[in-house]
Amino acid sequence: MIIPRQAGQGELMMEFAKAQKGGKFPTKKMHTYIMPTFPREEWESITLQQGVHPRFKFILWLAVQKRLPTVERLEKFGIQVPSECVFCGKTKETFEHLYFDCQVTKTLWGRLCNWMGIQRSIHDGRTEIAWISEIAKKKAGDGLCVDKVLREIVMHIHLRGQHKASWKPILQALNKYP
To answer: Reverse transcriptase zinc-binding domain location, by residue (predicted)?
Structure first.
């Protein structure tokens, strides 16, 4: 979502006049003034960490956007695949179920939280991402550790799910079409 500036022609000309000092024109200042401002996302502190492989950043970014290929998303594209969760096989595979409600992945979250010394029950995706974002804003200690563990959990669930997926042959057959 873009938040547009409400500057009229007259206001813009006044800003141009204020920006000129001694016959010089600071283009950086005017560029900043003219450009629209974007609201900050709560998950930016997770995905914009330095020293992370770009592939991991991308998959984590897809995860917080809920864009990873779950059965629910594949069905939206018209691809018919078995709908049960690849880990527990009991419920329809949605993003929320796969990452936060499935007993297998919930156990993984719980064990890693216990290993880090964090006593916390796992809630829905929005709550967990907000919690992890707050911790990830801390540049050292728990923040750095939780951030890395989150990336590992997302990668593990994503890659393990792809490996176990019963619909993998169906997608490979679709890739053969021109």
So the answer is: 25-109
SS3 164: helix
Residue 78 φ/ψ region, left for φ over 0, alpha for ψ in the -120 to 50 degree band, beta for the rest: left
As a whole number of angstroms, the distance between CA 178 and CA 167 comes to 20
Query: Which of 28, 4, 29 is CA-nearest to residue 18?
Result: 29
Domain boundaries, the chain: 1-39, 44-175
pLDDT tens profile 139-173: 655 555 666 677 777 777 777 776 666 656 766 66
CA distance 113 to 151: 13
- Residue partners of 145: CB distance under 8 A and separation at least 6: 116
CB 170, CB 79: distance < 8 Å = yes
Segments in the chain forming alpha helices (H):
9-19, 27-34, 44-47, 54-64, 71-76, 95-96, 103-115, 125-136, 142-164, 168-175
Q: Degrees (nearest 5) of the Cα angle 138, 144, 147? A: 100
Report the alpha-carbon distance of residue 171 to residue 173 in Å, rounded: 5
